[in-house]
Amino acid sequence: MKNIILIGAPVDSGKRRAGCLMGPDAYRTAGLGRALANLGYKVRDWGNLTPAEHTPDDPDAHIYAHHETIGWTNRLLRAGQDAMAKGLPIFLGGDHALSLGSVAGVAAHAAAHDRPQFVLWLDAHTDYHTPETTESGHLHGTPIGYVTGRTGFGGFPKLAKPVPQENVCILGLRSVDQAEREAMQETSIRAYDMRMIDETGIAGPLAEFLAMVKKANGALHVSLDVDFLDPSFAPAVGTTVPGGATMREAHLVMEMISDSGLMTSLDLVELNPFLDERGRTAQVMVDLAASALGRRVFDRPTRAFT
Fold it and tell me: Is 73's pLDDT higher than 60?
């Protein structure tokens, strides 16, 4: 029986719009632990973390909650390393700034065990900025930049081993600013926007990436942002971008991840319950997590939101 470790990460420092700190408890209320236990896992809930001690932030600084986010990164890095030794961690967000720490932590564990770390980023955005390049000053747009070793992250923990660019696959892109676009063109990150997915489907690029992870005996971290999904059925996110993955596409991605047996850690991020409709988005995210961990098509419960 595999252990699943739930780690509440009520990170709300990655952007100015508040609400993501309520995300971890929304996932619990939507029955994430129960759904995974019903699949045969032993589920342990470590509760909600708090950021490590940090320097107070200047509220007028361009980078919003810079030091608080560094505190969160330190805490989640250590928690990720610890959890990987005990099971499969699921980081319950919290905004996407939590992945600065979650990915750094699981990658440090992989490096210590001489395994390459891979990252599947399911998101409308590349999140490839740095504190030096972000115009918004929001650090939830920087995790991929950080974990792949971009400069400009002074004060953040030094990475044991950055994730190689070619080990990162981003699916679902549809909102990339000019600076990120130009920077991404100089990388070997695998990036697939919704135009590509519309033309060729989502299964092909994902299957190719999963085959690469398997061949390398890699550890696979999956980071699922609510805005990967189309806001018509997942509205509880402050960065809504129309034209996202459909429910069927999202479940296909998760079912393929499950079939591969490769996932070693998972983020569920950017859920803002304040923006939700009767818990609808939280339930969608719980259902997708269950699909990634073995729930089959015919086992899905019928949901009623009327």
Answer: yes
Let me know if 125 is a catalytic residue.
Answer: yes
pLDDT at 306 over 60: no
Q: Spot the catalytic one: 95, 180, 225, 267.
A: 225
Predicted pLDDT of residue 81: 97
Cα separation of 259 and 275, whole Å?
A: 33
Exposure class string for 144-161: b at 16+ Cβ within 10 A, else e: bbbbbebeebeebbebbe
Q: Which of 12, 227, 267, 287 is catalytic?
A: 227
Cα gap 60→260, rounded to integer Å: 47
Tens-place pLDDT, residues 114-146: 999 999 999 999 999 999 999 999 999 999 999
Residue 227 appears among annotated catalytic residues: yes
- Determine whether 127 is an active site residue: yes
- How many Cα neighbours within 13 Å face the side chain of 33? 15
pTM of the predicted model over 0.85: yes
| Residue 268: its H or E element | strand 263-269
Residue of 230, 255, 270, 287 marked catalytic = 270
Q: Any catalytic annotation for residue 166?
A: no
